[in-house]
Amino acid sequence: MQIAAFSSCKSREDCVLCGRFTLRAPKIDLGQFFFATMGPADLGQLTVGLGNKFDVGPPRFNIAPTQNILCLQHDSQRDCLTAAHYRWGLLPAWVKDIAIGARMINARSETLDSKPSFKQALARRRCVIPMDGYYEWTKAAGGGDKQPVLIEPVDGQVKFMAGLWAENQRLGDDGAIYSCTIITTPANSTTAHIHQRMPAFISECDLSAWLDPQLYDVSKLKMLLRPAERALLKLTTVSRYVNSPRNEDQRCVVPLDDVAGEGQQFIQFD
Prior knowledge:
Layout: E1 21-23, E2 27-29, H1 30-34, H2 40-46, E3 53-55, E4 60-63, E5 68-75, E6 80-88, E7 106-108, H3 116-124, E8 126-131, E9 133-138, E10 147-153, E11 159-168, E12 177-186, E13 197-199, H4 207-210, H5 218-223, E14 233-237
Parallel strand pairs: 6-12, 7-12
Antiparallel strand pairs: 1-4, 1-9, 2-3, 5-6, 8-11, 9-10, 10-14, 11-12, 12-13
């Protein structure tokens, strides 16, 4: 899903995603997700810093790389779930050039334990990134500019993408810079005709395991990183208005057939 402003890939096959996404829900019901594998007592400890109904702030319709994005992680000192806004684009501790982050917005699940940039983070700095849709670009009918497609959960609910985070003391003028990356997996059959990669969604029953600071077994962690089930997502063609990261309002997600006067055709996927 990468576009020219952020892409470091030489071809479509080399590209990874996700490079744009949405978080439109005003609140996240943490209890809805964590009750799947935890009892009320454990949940109370886990969410003590947030509350079960967590206010995520204003809706965001076009979140782009290098912006600050919401991350949830386990705070080992307080033994609870905490939230923070981290810069999107991983900046490991050794990085001296902030521009590198724009090339590290994603991490492939298959090579997390072999890449120096991600290996330590996989063991010690895991997080989840809430979202309720992401964008991909595909060839338009009849040629021309690529057409954006909104890929979102069928049930309209917030889902959690697997992520890693880092702390960099070299780059910040007023302290450390905290950053993150989104983990990707091979695409499922719903989205593979658009792009060969998709975000790794952590299922409700796996959230507590992914965030468990005591889980170090790489093989078990990588088993949690699977393509989303085919029935989880739906596709909606949207206007090219979303192409610019400067456009951040509700028009980004309006279905193309509801947009008047754009002269664009609705894409039919095989």
